[in-house]
Amino acid sequence: MNNKEFTIKKVTLSSSSVNIAWEDNQISHFHFLWLRDNCPSNEHPDARQKIFNIINVSENIHPKKYFVNDIGNLEIIWSEGNYHSCYDAKWLKKHCYTIKNKQTYKSPYKFWESKFHKHLSKIKIEHDDIMKSDEALLKWLKLLIKYGFSIVKNSPIEKKSAFKILNRISHVRETFFKTPFEVINIPKPNNAAYTSAGLFNHTDLPYFEYAPGYQFLHCLINEAKGGDSSVVDGYAVADYIKKNIPNIFNQLINTPIKFKDNDYTQNKTRIIHSPIITLDENKDYSDIRFNISTVGAFDIHPNKMKKYYSSYRKFASLVHKKKFTVNFRLQAGDILCFDNRRVLHGRTSFDPNSGQRHLQGYYMDRDEILGRLNFLKKVEV
Ligand code: OGA
Ligand code: NM2
Ligand code: ZN
C-alpha cells in the first residue's frame, strides 16, 4: 500500500502542465514536455540511458487522455503518435520539481575550527569495520562529505596495503607522482613534500585544471622527531572571510591567480589560472585551491596587484591561524583522508636522522566518493 505521501488525490490539466494534488496536500505541476521526456519507456532497460530524443515531438504535445490507474499510477495517452506513458506515482513525487524548487538549499557541509580537535573521535573510524560492513563504509563516506575529513584507524602498515580499503570506494586517480606516491625525504627532491622541511597548509596539485578531489595519506611509520600534522577547513575560513571581510571575499572568488609546476623530472610545464575560492551553482563552497609553494609570479592587472596581495596575505594568514588549525600526530596505521579541494593540510619539519617517517599517498576523484555514497544510500535517479 502506498502511504499518503505517494498517493494521488486528484489530477487536473492546465494549458501546459499536468497538476497533481497529493493525499499529503502537496501540489505538483509537471510540464507536458517534462513528462513526455521522462516517460519510463524512453530509457533502455539494460543500458539505463535515454533512447528517446525530445526533438522528435513538437512543443505542442499534450495529453489526449489521462487517468490514475487502479494501482495508483498516472497514465497518459499523448496527442502525438498515440503514445502511451505510465508513471509510477512514487517516482513522480520524488522527482517533483515544483516541491523541490520551493525548498531552500541546505548545505551538506559542517564547518569546523581548531576546537574540533576535542571531537576527533567523531571522524575516526576503524579500518576493519569499513572492510567488513557497508554500514561503516557508508559512515566513512558521509564523514568525507560532511566534514571533508576522516582518520581511518588501525590499518595494516604494509606498503600499498591501503589500496584494499580505497577499493571499497572505487579506483584511484592517477597522477605523474604515481600511486601510491611516497612521502619520504629523498636526495635531489622534485617536490617540497619529498624533503624533511615543514609544509605550509596547502591543497595538493592546484596546478592541475582538475585538482584531485580526495587525498589519503597512509602512515606506515612516523618515528622521526617532528613531522606533526595540521588540517584546516578551507570552507570554514572562506565562510569567515565572507561574513567578516566581504571585499576580500570578492577578490578571492573573482581573481584568477597563477599556479605552476615545473618539476625537473617531468617533461611538462603546468600552468593554471584559478581563483583561490570557487563557488558552486548554489553559491555554496566548491573548491579551495591554495599552496604558497606552487603559486607562479602573479600576472594580474597592475591596478589590482596591491589590493590582491592584501587579500592573498589575509587568506594565507587565516589558514595558518590557531583559530582554524587542528593539530595532531599521525600514528602508524592511520590513514588521513580529506577533501583536497576543501581541507588544507600541512606538517612540521622533521629530523630524518632521529627516526624513520614514511607516508604513502593516494588520490581519488570526488565523483567516486559521491557516486558510491549515492549508490549505498539507494538514491533513485
Ligand atoms: C604531501 C603532504 C604531509 C606530510 O605529501 O602533499 O602534504 O605529513 N604531506 O608529510
Ligand atoms: N605530492 C605529495 O601540490 C603539490 O605539489 C603537493 C604533492 C608530491 C604528490 C605535493
Ligand atoms: Zn600535500
Give the arrangement of secondary structure elements.
Layout: E1 8-13, E2 17-22, E3 27-31, H1 32-37, E4 63-68, E5 74-78, E6 84-87, H2 89-94, H3 97-102, E7 124-126, H4 127-132, H5 134-146, E8 149-153, H6 162-166, E9 181-183, E10 199-202, E11 214-222, E12 225-226, E13 229-233, H7 234-244, H8 246-254, E14 257-261, E15 270-274, E16 277-279, E17 285-288, H9 302-318, E18 325-328, E19 335-339, E20 343-347, E21 350-351, E22 357-364, H10 366-376
Parallel strand pairs: 7-8
Antiparallel strand pairs: 1-2, 2-3, 4-5, 5-6, 8-19, 9-22, 10-20, 11-19, 11-22, 12-21, 13-18, 13-20, 14-15, 16-17
Helix pairs in contact: 5-10, 7-8, 8-9
Quick recap:
With 381 residues, the protein is α+β, with helices and mostly antiparallel strands.
* Oligomeric assembly: single chain
Largest sheet: 6 strands, mixed
Low-confidence stretches: none
Strands in their spatial order, largest beta sheet: 7-8-19-11-22-9
Strand fraction:
25-35%
What structural class do helix, strand and pairing data support? Answer: alpha+beta
**Can you count the beta strands?**
22
Shape: elongated
Q: Helix share of residues? A: 10-25%
Bound small molecules, by name, code or SMILES, are: N-oxalylglycine, 3-carboxy-N,N,N-trimethylpropan-1-aminium, zinc ion
Radius of gyration: 26 Å
State the main characteristics.
alpha+beta, 381 residues, 24% helix, binds zinc ion, 10 helices, six-stranded mixed sheet, binds 3-carboxy-N,N,N-trimethylpropan-1-aminium, binds N-oxalylglycine, four-stranded antiparallel sheet, single chain
